[in-house]
Amino acid sequence: MDKYRNMLRKRIHSILSTWQQQQTVTGEELYRFYHNIKGTAGTIGMHDVQHIAERELEVYVNQKEEAFSREDWQPIMNDLLFFFEDAVEKEDESTKEDFSEDLPLVLIVDDDIEFGSFLKDKLENNGYQALLALSGKKGIDLFYDMSPRLILLDYLLPDVDGMEVLKQILKKSMREFIPVIMLSAYGSEDRRNRALELGAMDFIDKPLIGEGLLPLINNRMRFQHRIISSIMNDELTGVYNRRFLMQEIKRSVSRLERKSIAPFSIVLCDLDYFKKVNDTYGHSIGDKVLRAFATSFKDVARSEDIISRYGGEEFVLLLPNTSASDALKVTNRWRDVLESRPVTTESGDITIRFSAGVREVREVTHHEEILKEADFALYAAKAQGRNKSLIYDEELMMEVANSPIHIIVVDDDEVVGAVFAEHFKQKKQIANREVIFHSYITGESFLEADWYEENGYYFLLLDGMLPDLDGVEILQRVRATYPKDKILISMLTARSEEEEIERALNLGADDYMVKPFRIKELGARIEGLVERVYTR
């Protein structure tokens, strides 16, 4: 298959070379190009290229009469070429460490034809394609037309100085991580420093001794591949990363503005109780869970669907041509897959569950606003018990946003209750929510009160020593009766024994505060806990 892949590579470069000389390219040309690429790439197993071509066909199918400038089509072409290169590299890496099957392109810019030809033959006999430019101007043209993977650039050239060539290609080479190795028969310290300072990756003296150049080129190629992979892929899970996601959302919104694609949906997913997985099983098992979650998406995804790791245990789906209701169905099918495939560990199986917020995009919206609203829906899903997906809806979100925070103090010292009441009366809001304060002087009066409401969020401050019930007993009853997600509990006591602290935390307390205290400091601590837990 490699023969046909390289033929396809050459055909793409040939077409691009022609287009680079034109002011515009018609939609008809772009449509035919992607049509041919789709068929060939799919046939020879280059599915990343096939998927890009399928996506671009949808863009140009109704715009065949329009003319497109280089700014319109070049960014997508760069993506295609990257995936083209990457698909070959990944297959080759499974069998060989070098690039002998991949044939990446090296551009040699040197006016010494004998030396240049020697290098060209050397490279082509060791798994590379090579182009030779005998002048600086020709080298610049080939660099922009052919997009080489690495450049060997002579310091002295007959028309344009090698440093000037470096300046003219620097922006693109830095952006695309294309290594530039400068060569010179007179490698003075000043020349070396100037070249490296400007942006060359290496500076090598002529004549070249032994076989040192090839290992260096192989090393730089591998380094380039790792950098590009790290830019586009999450190292742990192998799916796309946040940077790639942001580019794709912006691109989708831009196409939506040109009315070249149908509405799409963004789904922000968060693994439920993932911190407990790390705390219980360790971070290595936590990593295993993240990988299992990410890779399982392929069982419900279409070829054009994208999954990216957004950060920590959060992932984002970009689902083209998908309504919010259809996106909801995708997440439900995904849950079925996860339920049927628990992660096996020595300590038992872990069933992965997640909450999700869905935001359908039908009109031009800033990418940060899209993600913010998906995050709002995700927050609502967690507030309603987790392991579910909710669609962003302003009415629902308003209801969630208006849920109050109840601060409840259970302490037989009425002065403590009065001090807290005064503090939170002045505060009025925490985490952009209304604060409602309650106090009780006995445990029984608190437990018998009708204090819990479904739409509320709570912070309980329980005194460890009460006249009727021990504060820890109240803690146990609350944890056994009410949802943990909506209730934060902190113990308040004059005792500071480690055993007491450990017992309370093991039974479900979120924090432990020791008397005496300063109300402003304690109030700030409570507010900080509420902010972290009840806001995203």
Automatic annotation (TrEMBL):
Residues 262-394 form the GGDEF domain. Keywords: Phosphoprotein. It comes from the Bacteria. The modification 4-aspartylphosphate is found at residues 154, 463. GO terms for biological process: cell adhesion involved in single-species biofilm formation; negative regulation of bacterial-type flagellum-dependent cell motility; phosphorelay signal transduction system. The modification Phosphohistidine is found at residue 35. GO terms for cellular component: plasma membrane. SMART domains: GGDEF, REC. The lineage of its organism: Bacteria, Bacillati, Bacillota, Bacilli, Bacillales. It holds the Pfam family Response_reg. Residues 1-98 form the HPt domain. This is Diguanylate cyclase. GO terms for molecular function: diguanylate cyclase activity. NCBIfam families: GGDEF. Residues 105-221, 406-530 form the Response regulatory domain. It comes from Paenalkalicoccus suaedae. The keyword Phosphoprotein applies. InterPro entries: CheY-like_superfamily (IPR011006), Diguanylate_Cyclase (IPR050469), GGDEF_dom (IPR000160), HPT_dom_sf (IPR036641), Nucleotide_cyclase (IPR029787), Rev_trsase/Diguanyl_cyclase (IPR043128), Sig_transdc_His_kin_Hpt_dom (IPR008207), Sig_transdc_resp-reg_receiver (IPR001789).
